Amino acid sequence: xxxxxxxxxxxxxxxxxxxxxxxxxxxxxxxxxxxxxxxxxxxxxxxxxxxxxxxxxxxxxxxxxxxxxxxxxxxxxxxxxxxxxxxxxxxxxxxxxxxxxxxxxxxxxxxxxxxxxxxxxxx
Length: 123
Known about the structure:
The protein is an alpha+beta fold. The chain contains three helices and five strands. The protein has a domain at 12-95.
């Protein structure tokens, strides 16, 4: 669904049908340590870019909103962990490179192409 900022995010939900007035971030609701979400937070949220760069189904994102001094200067911290073993993922934009089956398929395809051409594989 499109956020108030205009970007696609699967964690944002809104409903204005027949007088309803619901806008929420479902990712923020999963974290009880987070401050209350405001619609203005979507402007600075890195989650849509992370989802666009890496749509790994094994990656779980955790959003923590921290209110600053007197409610100003809010910070949005996003951490990523693996759903299978709970290991932290250092860079959520890239994901886990070692355990990615999609990346293994891509590497095998490149090796087959290079073997067919007789070239040596590029690093």
